[in-house]
Amino acid sequence: MDLLRSLPLGLYLEQPQTWLHKLDARVKIAWLMSFLTSYTFANNQWRILLVALLIILTLVARIPQRVWKQQMVWLLTLALFVFVIISISPDGLGVRYQPRLPAEPQILIQPGNTNTTDIVPVPTQENKNYSYILFDQGPVKVTRRSIDLAIRVSTIIFTVIYSSNLYLLTTAPEEITTAIESLMQPLARFKVPVTEITLTLTLSLRFIPLVLEEVQNLIRSVTTRAINWKKLGWKRAAQVWMIVAHRLLENLLLRAEQMANAMMVRGFTSPSEHQVKWHELRLRARDWLAIAILTLFWGVRLVLGHMA
């Protein structure tokens, strides 16, 4: 099992360089925030459209299938599983639907008046196609509310996880921190430690692959020893995994100490005095085009995406 390939969280795809890689990191942050915030108070059609847009964006960017195929399949499977579970679960309302109109045609006659011209026909139930319960067979009952909730939860799982993963996949950690530092510069007037925050974020993004690598190495070391877990029992198995977790913590602390020593050797004293320009931010023609499309994106959201 290769965690660095099956779970590429925080990993950056260096090659090949797609047009998504070449976009300004600040523009991509704006797009990411748009995907995450436009979901709020949106109708189900817009939520499904966001999922479709992410899939289309991945295909149009020509990112290699080996990078995204497994993750997308797992996420879609998870979203479909959540959709099915929630749609057949009780919706919490406990509504017993009863027709508002009578089942048979009737005639209403105003009291004290026998004039036939005042006879008003009542519409029949056949003219009503609305039904709160969409499917009811045995223990399985699907209602409009359960379907609505299932679409909300399943689409937000896919949108939040995959949009963030796509952003990290096409944006270098240095570009991310430089973009965040540039966007947070107005907060420096209020004595917010912007540089320290971005430095911490840079080290965190750099540390995620190291954590995955350590976990992968420990899992491989356990599997190569061919331990018979059935003979061990749950107590001894728990002891083994506690030893593995303790070893993982030691390795991570050692990696952190090595990183700190490397920074000290290079003369790093403080973020304010030892700043490194990781990436030069400059808006180009393709970035302005992405901003224009983003404006159109929000225009469509405001017009068509409102919750009814």
TrEMBL record:
InterPro entries: ABC/ECF_trnsptr_transmembrane. It is found in: Membrane. CDD domains: EcfT. Pfam families: CbiQ (PF02361). It is a multi-pass membrane protein. GO terms for cellular component: plasma membrane. It comes from the Bacteria. The chain crosses the membrane at residues 44-61, 73-90, 288-307. The keyword Transmembrane applies. Keywords: Membrane, Transmembrane, Transmembrane helix. Its main location: membrane. The keyword Membrane applies. PANTHER family: PROTEIN ABCI12, CHLOROPLASTIC. This is Energy-coupling factor transporter transmembrane protein EcfT. It comes from Anabaenopsis elenkinii CCIBt3563. The lineage of its organism: Bacteria, Bacillati, Cyanobacteriota, Cyanophyceae, Nostocales.
